[in-house]
Here is the input.
Amino acid sequence: MGFNLYHVDAFTEAAFAGNPAAICPLTGPADEGWMQHVAHEMSLSETAFLYPEGDGFRLRWFTPKVEVDLCGHATLAAAHLLWEMGIADPEKAIRFHTRSGTLTAVFEKNWIWLDFPAEPASPVPAPYELERALGIKPRYVGRNRLDFLAEMPSEAALHALRPDMERLMRLPARGIIVTAPTSAEGIDFVSRFFSPATGIREDPVTGSAHCCLGPFWGARLKKDEMTAYQASERGGVVKLRLMGDRVALGGRAVTVMHGRLTDAAAQPPRPADPPPA
Here is the structure.
């Protein structure tokens, strides 16, 4: 039998904006190789697979190339879908068991809030390939366990970036967060995120990057609550609350498509046929 697949736009109030994720609810564990094939076929920045486990759900995230340790927008999309389908009670928190520990989602005044680990960056010398790839000297360069963080000289410089993806792929990191202050009303800072090494040239809206951006801008702006905008082509708004070693990420989501994997795609793929002799 096949599996249902849902296309959900996260960190947006309207369809065709924010960051799209494919969500595949399962009844139990699935073959890793099969999940990677499905994610590659979906060709979105993340495809999430979830199934009931203990007091919540096991949740795994795959880019078209690899499984990743942390993903905000697909977690937001998964929570939205569980509430929309009536699988989870909107009056109660959803617990997701992941490679980054247990993450929770709550529904509060039409916003979904995710409780994620803070991922602060520590200052590091700017790698040669990073400056060459960006084509500009950052004001600040930091590094956490996942990514490099680079503060741009201005918001205009951030918007103008056209990074050299080949050079970015040589950096020993999941991706590169670039950020800048902004004069936009109601927004505290802007950012972009590039992750060609995982198959994502530019991610539309990256929840996990804000686990780094929150502590970075919170210290500079002297704020514990902020509103951020990820300035990709699609764009998206992320609300933040700093809570010590945790960061709450707030967003909305919209389901835009529902489909079903056929029986042919519902099983782990067999090895490719050998070439004819």
Remarks:
- The chain is about 20% helix and 40% strand.
- Helices lie at 32-42, 72-84, 128-134, 155-160, 165-168, 210-221.
- The domain at 122-243 is CATH 3.10.310.10 (Diaminopimelate Epimerase; Chain A, domain 1).
- The two ends are 35 Å apart (CA to CA).
